[in-house]
Every structure is written in structure tokens, then in C-alpha cells.
Amino acid sequence: MNDLNRFYFDLPQWLGKSEGIHRQFIGNFISCLHDEQLQVVLNPVSFPCYGLKRLAIKESITFSFHSYNNDKNVFSIKESPIYGLYSVDKNGYSGWADICVNFSSYIDKINEIDHDSAKNIIGEKRDFFRETKLSKHQQPHNHVVLPSDYLFFPMQVNSDSVTDHENISAMEALDYVAALAKKTNRKLVIKRHPMCKSRGVDAKIAYLLATNENVLSVDANIHELIEGSSAVIACNSGASIEALIFGKPVYCFGRSEWYEATHKIEALEDFDAIFLNDTHSTMSVFQEKLIAYLLSEYWIQFDDIESIKAKIKYCISLYESNYGDDFIDNHNNGECYVRSFLNAQREIAILKRKQKKYKKDYELLSFVIRFVLFLPFKATLTMLGRNKNH
User: Fold this and answer.
1) Residue 292's closest CA among 252, 266, 257?
2) Residues 242 and 214 in one domain
């Protein structure tokens, strides 16, 4: 019998009433933890908490929100890129996820899925997208007129932690494919991430639109943009796995849980073939099985109680006895220590996030300068969000 007697669970404090499925999933998960008849300690955490290293505590399992590079007995919890599905992972998420880091160990499990079953799983999710129009982030309902043939480039937030796994700088990639679109007279449709607030990205998009008539910036439902495209180019955006579900050829220049189901882009020159070819290959049988495995087994549905219980049982099976810090003399002192530790690390995370954002925005300043030189003064002020009376 092992010495496990306690669960620590990060409780995000930023979830609003509108985020119903997040709250439901967390409530369901905590309820299932109580079913194990062990003590459950809730640690309120503030944004941003991703990347904060959680302590491995003796006689405990920690379920941490948005953590990665986890220690033993620490498991990351995070919403997946697919609406309603959640990740519980011993390593982290995106390029840190165990299936990305140790992919070979999952091949047999993936191959156990029957191909017809895989197609049905993917088809059901595709039908759900078409019926509900739901994606991870809220989408506009407006209909836009799109070119008859275009390549789609969904952008990401520059300071997002998952961009640590990009093979090529996202802005460098966008520059390159925009130039290819112009050279080959192909249309490139870009969609800005709904959470992006960067003025540097403002300038980058405005500059591309002003200098390249083959580039279009569109704010429409992500699924409409995917379905109308001939192929999708992305770093490791969640839109890229949605595109795979829609059966589109996907070219990714960043690692993720579904990286092995995409055409991998590891150098700028790898983009050339996308624009020179009129046809693009879609997923192989194994790649379809991989996507089905992610949708049906690796990630869990927010309201699937049996799957949540099974995932908790799996985490318990990985528990390593007599491992971790034993500084906790009593329950109350332990709670205070962990919360103080997380608060201190949160301050570091804020600084790191700002540093990353400022660095990437600084790299875009040259485009602001070029924009000022290229366009009339009034247009430049408009792009910067000002007017002539300021």
C-alpha cells in the first residue's frame, strides 16, 4: 500500500460566470477526487500561473493548472484546443505534453484504434463544429466574402507560452509566406488571434495589407475560414488541429500534441512547396488514428464523469511513494506554504511574460518605421489608434 493521502488542486480565480464548461469541469474533477476518500486541498491561483513549477510534496499528488516540465507526482490540467475537452498530463501541454515528448511510447495505443472508428470519431467532432460553430475562443457570426482559392494562416498571441515550441519565428514565417503569396500570385488569408492586443502586430498586419495585395486579413468564424481554404499554415495553433478534423492539409512550424499528424515545417524553405503545388496530401491512416486518440482517450470531455475518474486512477497509478518535499508538519502550514510559493512564482511569471511580449514587439518595431515611411501621416495615426485631434 502506498503512502498517498492527499490531493492538491489548483483552483483558478479568474474564471468568470460565463465560462460555464470550465467551471463544470473543475467541479466534476474535484468531486471525483473526493470519491477517492483522500484529503483534497484547494489552492487558489491567480493569472498567470502557467509555467510555474509546482512542488512535489510527499504523500501527495498535485494537479496544477497550466504547468509544464512537471516533477514526479505533479500533473498539469489545462483546457485542450478543442472546445469541451481537457488535458490531464504528467509533463504539461502543447510541446511539453507527454505524447509530444515521448511520442514513440504511444504508437501502439494509437494503432489499437480501428480506422473506421477513427473516422467516426473525427466525423462526429466535425459535425459538432458545423452544427454549433463553437471553438475554444468565441467567434464572430458575420459572414465574409472569401477568395475562391486561398491558404489560411491563423495567427497566435506572440507572448503565449506555446510559442516556445516554434521551429521558426511566427513573424518571420508570416513574412516569408506573404512574399511567396505575392511571388506565386496565391491568396493568403490571415486571422488575428482574438486575444492579441499587440501594437507591433497591428503594424505588421497593416504593413502587409498596404504592400501586398495577395494578403487579406479577415475576422470571421475560424471554421468558415478553415473550410474554405485549400490548406492551413500555422505554428501550433489550436486552429491547426481543427483544420485536421475538417480534413484539410495542415503545415505546422511548431510542436504540439498533434504535430505528428501535420506536414512538418522546420525551415523557411519548406514553405515553398505549399505555394508551388495545387494539391496537398491530407492525413494518413495512422495520422487519423492519432487525432482520434487525442479526441477520445488522451483528452477528456468536461462532463464525462467516468473518463475523469479513469484519468484520476491513471494518475494515482503513476504515484511514486516517498518522493517530494517533506517540509509540511501539519495541514495548515502546508497550505500556507504552497500558496505563498505560488504567489511568489506568479510575480516571476508576470515579469517573464512581459519580457517575452516586449521582446517580440520590439522585433516588430522596424515594421512600424517602414509603415510610417510608406503611408501618409494621417493613415499612420489611424493605424496607431489616434486621430488628428490628439
Assistant:
1) 257
2) yes
Q: Is there a contact between 186 and 148 (Cβ–Cβ < 8 Å)?
A: no
Q: Letter for the amino acid at 173?
A: A
Answer whether the bond into residue 48 is a cis peptide, omega within 30°: yes
SS3 of 71, please? coil
| 8 Å CB contact between 268 and 257 | no
Domain holding 53, by residue range, is 6-108+300-352
Cell numbers at 302, concatenated:
468536461
Residue 48 lies in a domain: yes
Distance CA 284, CA 290 (A): 10
pTM of structure: 0.85
Digit-coded pLDDT (tens) for 339-388: 666 666 666 666 666 666 666 665 566 655 655 565 555 445 545 543 33
pLDDT of residue 264: 97
CATH classification of the domain holding 163: 3.40.50.2000
| Residue 23 and residue 169 in one domain | no
- Residues 88, 63 contacting (CB under 8 angstroms): yes
186 in the same domain as 94? no
221: its cell numbers? 468564424
Give yes or no for a contact between 76 and 22, defined as CB atoms under 8 angstroms apart: no
